[in-house]
Amino acid sequence: QDSTLTDVCFDVDGERFNAPRLVMAAQSEVFRSLLFGSDDAETKTETAVITIDGISATTFKHMLHYIYCNQLPPPATGDGDDDDGEADHVTRIAEMQRLHVAAAAYGVEALRQACEATLCAGINMDTVASTLALTEKGSYPKLRGSCLEFLSNTQIYSVATNDECYEVVQSYPDVLTEIRDRFKKPRLTPKFPSTDTKDQNNP
Fold it and tell me: Whole-model pTM?
């Protein structure tokens, strides 16, 4: 973030990040509009500091890191304990969720897709509820489908004993309908000949 190589400063939750306008604008139309505005050349140099609302400084830092290096934040390395490893996984998934929302809001599509893939692969008993709740706040069909697929292949009632998941089911009852539809699908295909067929074979 050498200020001699940058020409814009982002203020995020009180923390400042220097960046090159052209690099940021090349990543999304949202940043392009935010940084350059109209075609008037004067607007391209008027604003030295851009305030970013709605995301944390840590999440914005991770976004910048992806824009510069094409890398997601690395998983935390625990001490090998199973409980610590699961806690690290839940913590990383939570940050991926925040980063996914930020990438969608600011139009950084490559980052959004990378976060989505990580979230889909990271769905388990401890993360399905928060990930499902995320899909209620935005249009993320692939992510929602992965959550429902996980629940469709899991003992739903054991998942619902998790307080967070129980709250989601209570708050979004349509989720149960979607899951029931998935459970019903195999039973919709008959495994025996219809009565009409039998009648045709036995006049």
Answer: 0.77
Strand order from edge to edge, sheet including 49-52: 15-19, 8-12, 49-52
Say if residue 1 is exposed, middle or buried (CB neighbours under 10 Å; 0-12, 13-18, 19+).
exposed
pLDDT at 202: 52
Contact criterion met (CB below 8 Å) for 34 and 50? yes
- Give me the sign of the Cα torsion angle 148, 149, 152, 155: negative
The predicted pLDDT at position 62 comes to 96
Query: Which ranges constitute the DSSP H helices of the chain?
Result: 21-27, 29-36, 43-46, 57-69, 82-105, 109-121, 128-135, 141-152, 156-159, 163-171, 174-184, 195-201
What's the mean pLDDT in 11-27? 93
Alpha-carbon separation of residue 119 from 7, 58, 140, 151, 154 (angstroms): 34, 18, 11, 15, 18
CA distance to 195, 196, 197, 199, per residue, from 202 (Å): 10, 10, 9, 5
- 27-46 average pLDDT score: 71
Residue of 53, 54, 75, 71 whose CA lies nearest to 63: 71
In one-letter notation, the amino acid at residue 195 is T
